[in-house]
Amino acid sequence: MRNFGISPSCGIYFEHLLFRRALLNYPRMKAFIFDMDGVLCANSDFHVEAWVVYARQFGKALVADDVRSRLGWNNRDYMRFILEREPTDEEVRHSIDGKEAVYRELYAPHLAHPAGLVAVLDAAARDGILCGVATSAPDENIRFTLDGLNIRHYFSAIVDATQVKQSKPDPAIYLKAAECLGVPPAQCIVFEDAIAGIQSGNAAGMPVIAITSSYPAEILAPHNPAAIIESFADLAGPCPATDLITRVCGKPLDIF
User: Fold this and answer.
1) Taking each helix axis from N to C terminus, what angle separates 172-181 and 195-203, rounded to the nearest 10 degrees?
2) What span, in angstroms and rounded, lies between the C-alpha atoms of 214 and 62?
3) Percent of the chain with pLDDT over 70
4) Which H helix or E strand runs over 125?
5) How many CB atoms within 10 Å of residue 107?
6) Which of 16, 52, 170, 194 has the highest Cβ tally under 10 A?
7) Are residues 177 and 241 in the same domain?
């Protein structure tokens, strides 16, 4: 049988071709990276209430604004604020168990998809846009949210605070998510609700679409998100956020 000049090592040859093709396609890949709390679920008020309740046992009388101004922090950051010193690992673990249990109990009856979220995730899947999650939330909350909403299957990468050394506003968590997705940072669009998260996405070199689920637009705007929306439902029509998606992705998001 003639082999038409292809050696017996053709498997390696074709693997090399596939690798070269992947490299050529790499710059054209796009991604959406979502914060979780306040973005994939409208839960910010419940986290605020849970921290106010949890802090009382340490003699710390928090008000809602004390917590709201720090949305995006991880448990260690919050415990450092409550204790006014560096918390021990055990104190952080206890907060993950204790405070987060309070939060899940408060929020469980209200767990629901934000308006327009599933339509955006479906459109991204149809258009070949990879999706990832970059969250400071502990694993139990990630499972509570993604599995409770039945949306885990949309995400090719899920990065939490245990996978990076610095929390938001440091860019590490968004850079890690882009790395896991295999997409250059400039070709990732971040969806965020928190000031620290907007700062993190900007520092990572990613355009940020801010959502007003936790703060009003006038509070978010000075932190320079590329666009601001009230909900994912806004992406079904023309607006600065859809213009941004078209520029980064090369075509409009096809939302049915």
Assistant:
1) 60
2) 18
3) 89
4) helix 117-126
5) 22
6) 194
7) yes
- 19, with CB counted inside 10 A (0-12, 13-18, 19+), is exposed
Q: Token digits for 23? A: 């490299």
- pLDDT tens column, 22-77: 444 444 689 999 999 999 999 989 989 999 999 999 999 999 888 888 877 888 99
Beta carbons of 67 and 79 less than 8 angstroms apart: no
Number of domains comprising the chain? 2
Main-chain dihedrals φ then ψ at residue 42, nearest 5 degrees: -90, 75
Q: What is the Cα–Cα distance from 248 to 187, expressed in whole angstroms?
A: 6
Cβ–Cβ under 8 Å, residues 191 and 35 = yes
Class of residue 150 by CB neighbours under 10 A (exposed 0-12, middle 13-18, buried 19+): exposed
Give 78-87 contacts, CB < 8 A, sequence gap 24+.
78/51, 82/55, 82/58, 83/58
Q: Which two tokens stand for residue 215?
A: 């703060």
What is d(CA 209, CA 242) in angstroms, rounded to the nearest whole number?
10
Q: What is the pLDDT of residue 29?
A: 84
Residue 72 belongs to domain spanning: 44-110
Q: Domain holding 97: CATH number?
A: 1.10.150
Indicate if the pLDDT at residue 224 is higher than 90. yes
Kindly state the helix (H) or strand (E) to which residue 157 belongs, with its residue range. strand 157-159
- Mean pLDDT of the chain, nearest integer: 89
Nearest CA-CA partner of 40 in 124, 128, 150? 150
